[in-house]
Amino acid sequence: MKNNVYTLVFAAVLGTVCAIVLAVPSVMLEPYRRANMEADKVRNILGVLGVPVEKNASSQQLLDSFRSVVKEEKRGTLSLYRYLQDGETMAVAVPFSGPGVWGPVEGFLSLSPDLRTIRGITFHKHEETPGLGGEIATESFRKRFIGKTLESVSGKAGIRIRPPGSPLADNEIHAITGATMTCNKVEVMLTAVIQRIKEERNENVK
Fold it and tell me: I need a labelling partner for 188 at 20 to 30 A (CA). Which of 5, 20, 26, 204 fits?
């Protein structure tokens, strides 16, 4: 009986000690983890806006650059990141997100100051299959969006991702071969945020 009690007490103490040993580093490292996440977010915003940044810039340097040239604002349900030079808007970044095939996809869409033309795009978070859906993060795919409009000639908001080799309209790009499902997911999430952009843009004109 005494041996059983000793075993239980020893197991409880050992479990408590192990929990503390695991929890303390996690708590201590949490501020660094948050700082790294914020720096990664800032790097992506600066990159998609076309703000010059040193390749090996520290987290603090990234934040300093962001605060000096980027103005964050809310417009309705949208968060906008406006790149300013001498008080003039050079580009605007808008975050987007949605479900991919294997997990969430997040990114930023860079637009012209009038919110009508795409200047760039980044997919900074995804769990798509490497070599297939994961190609959305490659430069070759992202370049396809540059210069595309947010609406069709008829005024319908959204980006259309068409099969490779298809003729393209001003708001259409070619899909990634073998990644139809991922491209469909990307089209849905981009069209959703573009619809919100159009609504807020029209509301601002009134």
Answer: 204
For residue 109, list its beta bridge partners: 94, 121
Residue type, 107: G
Q: Which two tokens stand for residue 108?
A: 């930023």
Residue 30 dihedral angles phi and psi, to the nearest 5°: -55, -45
Residue 153 corresponds to which tokens in the numbers above? Answer: 């000639």
**Residues with Cβ < 8 Å from 108, sequence gap 6 or more?**
44, 45, 48, 81, 93, 94, 95, 96, 121, 122, 124
pLDDT at 63: 87
Residue carrying structure tokens 């298809």: 166
Tell me which residue of 94, 89, 95, 96 sits closest to 70, measured CA to CA. 89
Taking alpha carbons only, the member of 174, 164, 166, 158 closest to residue 118 is 158
pTM, to two decimals? 0.80
CA–CA distances in Å: residue 34 to residues 67, 84, 97, 102: 18, 26, 20, 25
Task: For the chain, give the number of residues.
Answer: 206
Pairing of strands 160-162, 172-174: parallel
Q: Which residues contact 202 (CB under 8 A, 6 or more apart)?
A: none
Q: Using CA atoms, how far apart are residues 165 and 76, in angstroms rounded to an integer?
A: 38
CA distances to 16, 29, 32, 136 from 129, rounded to whole Å, are 40, 30, 29, 10
Q: Per-residue pLDDT tens for 82-134? A: 999 998 999 999 999 999 999 999 999 999 999 999 999 999 999 999 999 99
